[in-house]
Amino acid sequence: MTTWSQFTEEAPSISALFLRRHQATGNLCMLGTLRADGSPRISPIEPTVFEDMLVLAGMPNTRKFDDLARDPRFCLHTATVDTNVSDGDAKLFGTVTDLPDEAVHARFAQKLFDDKGFDIRGMKFDHFYIADLTGASTVEVEDDHLNITVWKPGAGERVVRKD
Question: This protein's superkingdom (predicted)?
Fold first, then answer.
């Protein structure tokens, strides 16, 4: 499993751009999953980096979590409304594992309360998905071209220039 710190070591520019865009939108991202019939689903989510894990948790009984329970593959895209992508955007790809550790859940809920005042302490998580990143990419506009940076575990970052 690729931890968050491994990802940031191997893909420093991608992880920095992801975090910058993630914070700029109030932590909002768009999550791509696969429905039962194989068609795609896009859903809003607020992923959180917690204890060296990228956590995909949220409101219980939602279709996106049903999708992940059935097929753990996902794509996570930083939300943007800028058609010129002037601040860049990032995509993370991977699979999830449901972590049933209630002690981790309790620490996560406490951190949410401490950081945002959002109180889910003592509540049981239906799913507490941890991302195992299998790839990532960013798009950034530079002068008259695009720089697309891609990453795969163990391979570092590679920049592709599109004129």
Answer: Bacteria
